[in-house]
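Quick one: structure for this chain?
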Amino acid sequence: MKLHYFFIINSSDCISNNFKAIKQFLTSGKWPSDLQYLLKHIWAVFFLVGAIYRAKKAIIVGDPLQVRPVTTMPSAMNDTLLEYYHVDKTWSVLEESVQTLSDRVNVYGTEIIKYANSQWVGCPLRVHRRYIAPMFSIANKIAYDNFFSR
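Got it. Here's what it folds into:
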């Protein structure tokens, strides 16, 4: 943390300019074409202490069938980043969570079928504190269509 602190203090002008560009973007809703080169630097500033961003391997544990993704990123910024990095919208952080994105590339898991729709869940969470009544029966009914009672 001290390293990050000193980096921020000594790079405050650059970081400040990045945040000014973000503010300009958020107020206008459009990324200025003359500031395209800043996108990768802004992304790096957002993840200055991002553990998952820096990790070579990570274990992501969660339940995408129970909790929808939560994001505070404006859709215009998300779309700009997807376009800049030539990333398909199926990888959008507005539609997907860290859990569903990691599930997508996980070779271990299972196909969960709910209401004629299927979803790949990598390393499904089988045991957790919610397996105690009444939370288990409620979650099982709502999220899994009673999958775990079969």
